[in-house]
Amino acid sequence: MRYYPLLLDLHGTHCLIVGLGKVGQRKLATLLKANPAQVTVLDTFAIGEVNDAELLQLLNSPLVTYAQRDFEASDVTGKTLVFASTGNRAVNEKVSSVCAKQGILCNVIDDPSAGTFTVPAHIEKGDLLITLSTGGASPALSRKIKKELQEQVGDKYAPVVTLMGRIRPLILELANDTAQNTAMFRSLVSSDIAEAIQKKDRIAAESILRSTLPETLHSNIGALLHELV
Question: Are 132 and 122 in contact (CB under 8 A)?
Fold first, then answer.
């Protein structure tokens, strides 16, 4: 396994994108969803020349600082993630080299092996995030598998993720034995709760929660299912 599968919390971090072509734009759009503190974007075009509404929306984000100039080695200082996404391999190599010297994670779009991480294909359904990668061997295969997973998963599990996010802190507050909590969580996700929510069958969903959750949490069932069924 060449790459370590890692999901990063980017809150409070500063990131850098060098080159804002089509690939760079996709990187920026995905990065902004993770809500970093700031994303510095470097390219040589003037914002006044942009007539792409989607690109302008990205650049106008309060999280984005755009600079119309070439890359400088000092640009990577203090950054958590760097994306080398220009159409110029020499520039991308320079970005990668500078990052390597400072131990900064870098993604290189035209030569993944020159960087330290790749961005996997992903499926987003509410709080559910599924990532997949072929280790850079075949992005086309990643897209094919992604399509198959999207068809298979659909919208079935997104509300269950929301429900589990509501239940988990309540369970942990009870300070029960870890093994007991694990058994309860496994029992719940192995139940028909996903199907009940998908069918908007509130009676079935409430019944499953009553039979699975500790009695002390039964009074929370209405709030737990709010807007899910």
Answer: yes
Asked if 95 and 70 count as a contact pair (C-beta separation under 8 A), the reply is no
For residues 180 and 202, what is the distance between their CA atoms, to the nearest angstrom?
26
- 122: closest CA among 9, 37, 4, 5? 5
Question: What is the spatial distance between Cα 48 and Cα 67, in angstroms, rounded to a whole number?
Answer: 13
Does residue 58 contact residue 26 with C-beta atoms inside 8 Å?
no
pTM: 0.84
**Tens of pLDDT, residues 99-144:** 999 999 999 999 988 999 988 888 988 888 999 988 778 888 999 9
- Return the bridge partners of 15, or none: 39, 81
Between CA 165 and CA 170 the distance in angstroms is 9
Q: How far apart are CA 205 and CA 85, in angstroms?
A: 47
Token pair 């390597």 is at which residue?
A: 100
Can you say how many angstroms the Cα of residue 210 is from the centroid of all Cα atoms in its chain?
A: 33
**Helix or strand or coil: residue 66?**
strand
Task: Tell whether the model's pLDDT for residue 207 goes beyond 80.
Answer: yes
Q: Which residues contact 183 (CB under 8 A, 6 or more apart)?
A: none
For helices 202-212 and 178-189, angle between their N-to-C axes, nearest 10 degrees: 160
Please check the confidence at residue 1 and state whether its pLDDT lies above 80.
no
CA distance 30 to 152: 23
- Mean pLDDT (the chain) is 94
